[in-house]
Write a structure and sequence with these properties.
Oligomer: single chain
Strand content: 15-25%
Helix content: 25-40%
Distance between the termini: 41 Å
Number of domains: 1
């Protein structure tokens, strides 16, 4: 049996809040790479659950095999994230008040989970990533996906995940009825500072009714 994912909860300043953001890092990074996010987003009612991917990768972690066949790792990590989200539901963080945010490989996992998990998220944010086997994804959609809202961002100068391919996938998903708010930025494989954080912040506030 695969061990559960390593996580750390960063509690909201508002101790009464049960709103949560689950943060999924990129290849070779770890939860430590996103400790800056709560202060940067400045949403005092939002709890954060930082997650390490299951596989070691040059001092960091990976969600799936980057150089070989990604399919087994993607399926395994998706199941681990389903289990993690099921656990959060039992400890008082309902999926309906939970956001997923993923960067690069974490973005791919946000697609995987956001489109397949059988409960509706408050919102799903994917940054600088792509969807794995999108045609297969579209055959395996969650029964609540028609109500799900996504924010997907990408850099026009991204040298790691080509911009055009990511945009083409988004257009394919939108054509099939997936609700995606798409934003492109003149950036490389990164987060474009406050200008992009403001787009994320407004999406989270809007989906939270704040």
């Amino acid at each position: 049996m695969t061990a559960p994912l390593t996580t750390e909860l960063l509690p909201a300043a508002d101790k009464s809040s049960r709103q949560l953001m689950v943060v999924l890092h990129g290849l070779g990074d770890s939860m430590d790479g996103f400790r800056w996010l709560p202060q940067a987003l400045n949403l005092p009612w939002l709890n954060y659950l930082l997650v390490n991917a299951p596989d070691g990768y040059y001092g960091g972690y990976s969600w799936y095999d980057y150089a070989g066949d990604a399919r087994p790792g993607v399926a395994r990590s998706r199941e681990l994230l389903f289990n993690l989200l099921d656990t959060q539901r039992t400890v008082g963080f309902s999926t309906e008040q939970t956001f997923l945010l993923g960067f690069s490989q974490g973005c791919l996992m946000s697609y995987e989970v956001g489109l397949r998990y059988p409960h509706l998220f408050a919102g799903v944010v994917g940054i600088s990533g792509y969807a794995h086997e999108p045609e297969k994804l579209l055959r395996e959609l969650s029964p609540v996906v028609a109500q799900q809202r996504f924010l997907i961002t990408h850099g026009t100068y991204d040298p790691v995940v080509p911009f055009a391919a990511s945009r083409e996938q988004v257009n394919l998903l939108k054509t099939d009825g997936i609700h995606i708010d798409w934003h492109e930025f003149p950036k490389e494989h990164t987060i474009a500072g406050e200008v992009e954080l403001q787009v994320i912040r407004e999406f989270v506030k809007r989906q939270s009714g704040r």
